[in-house]
TrEMBL record:
Residues where ATP binds: 104, 143, 148-154, 178-181, 186, 209, 262-263
Protein name, per record: N5-carboxyaminoimidazole ribonucleotide synthase
Database matches in SUPFAM superfamilies: Glutathione synthetase ATP-binding domain-like, PreATP-grasp domain, Rudiment single hybrid motif
Any one of the GO BP annotations: 'de novo' IMP biosynthetic process
Superkingdom, taxonomy of origin: Bacteria
Family under the similarity heading: Belongs to the PurK/PurT family.
Subunit structure: Homodimer.
Source species of the chain: Zoogloea ramigera
InterPro entries on file: ATP-grasp (IPR011761), ATP-grasp_carboxylate-amine (IPR003135), ATP_grasp_subdomain_1 (IPR013815), PreATP-grasp_dom_sf (IPR016185), PurK (IPR005875), PurK_C (IPR040686), PurT/PurK_preATP-grasp (IPR054350), Rudment_hybrid_motif (IPR011054)
Catalyzed reaction equations: 5-amino-1-(5-phospho-beta-D-ribosyl)imidazole + hydrogencarbonate + ATP = 5-carboxyamino-1-(5-phospho-D-ribosyl)imidazole + ADP + phosphate + 2 H(+)
UniProt xrefs under NCBIfam families: PRK06019.1-1 (NF004675), PRK06019.1-2 (NF004676), PRK06019.1-3 (NF004677), PRK06019.1-5 (NF004679), purK (TIGR01161)
Keyword ATP-binding: yes
Amino acid sequence: MILPPATLGMLGGGQLGRFFVAAAHEMGYKIWVLDPDPNSPAGLIADRHLQAAYDDYAALDVLAEGCAAVTTEFENVPADTLDYLAKFVPVRPGASAVAVCQNRIAEKSFLRDNGLPHGPFAVINVDADIAAAPASLYPAILKVARFGYDGKGQARVANAAEALHAFHAFKGEPCVLEQMLSLDYEVSVVLARDENGRVKCFPTVENRHTNGILDVSIAPARASACQRDAAQEYAERIAERLGFIGTLAVEFFVSRGELVVNEMAPRPHNSGHHTIDACVTSQYEQQVRALCGLPLGEARQHSASVMVNLLGELWYDGGEPHGRYREPDWSLLHAVPGLRLHLYAKHHARHGRKMGHFTVIGSDADDVLAKALAAR
Ligand code: ADP
Ligand code: MG
């Protein structure tokens, strides 16, 4: 076991890293964050911020030398970086698990090879792959295989001609072409898995997206108990097959009553933010525990919760780009009983950028949902 006051390393300095730093600090650890952005939310509160690129090997040497173990909050860290660090220190999750989750082609192939439910798709490497894709895929979504997030790197296409146009707009980057599914709703499962394969699963969460970005998460999900359990079983199977150590999130679609895996994230997840306020152990503390070889904490949810994301457009009066930049009036949110506000200290608000969130907790799920939607 790695015990305090050991120093832990974090690759990536976004809000997920910031919550990890906060959880680790509470537990008595020191944290070094590696992120090229001088204003990264996690870097601002870390014990040391290595301001360097993810493939800067001199910086990686410093990190490996100074830290007892290293984790990531960002799935696009190059797998080579994780492999390199793993020569010197424990790296959790490992490069092979992250490599699957950071590439939609590898991810879809993994689901198919492991008998996990997924939607119809085709791999698009060259123009001819579009011509060869079955017409039954349309209407479809073309997604770049790497580096997409919050709906970026995606195009909705009605037919092969539009798919070809979008593929060229993505500069011929490898893509997956997915059938557009009719969604009843979306759910996700966040779990933690330790080095001995023991798993603690948080209750299944229901997610509402707006313009491809998570808007509201309702926990526990209002899906049938049978569907909630099935989602957890699939997520556990994925973690086991990946040999995953750390906090993992699996996003699902429920389409015509059927659960379909959408994608995985090898890190804590936006739809698990509520675990800070509504569960015995947060997804971030679980990441610390799995990284350090501590027993995983209890994942039980003690309160019903609804999480609402706060995006950059809230910072503009009359809308971006012509509106006036101003800080929203937080006193209104602080006055709502059971509401907890979390702001990420990002220096600039941009349209669609995740700037913060709030969670409303309480004993009655309907009441919590009504309060959260009213506060929005
Ligand atoms: P990201 O990496 O941006 O989260 P996702 O693949 O999860 O990418 O897509 C974002 C959102 O877009 C999903 O949560 C869902 O609402 C919608 N979406 C994505 N793929 C499909 C699909 N095949 N059918 C219907 N909706 C989809
Ligand atoms: Mg997603």
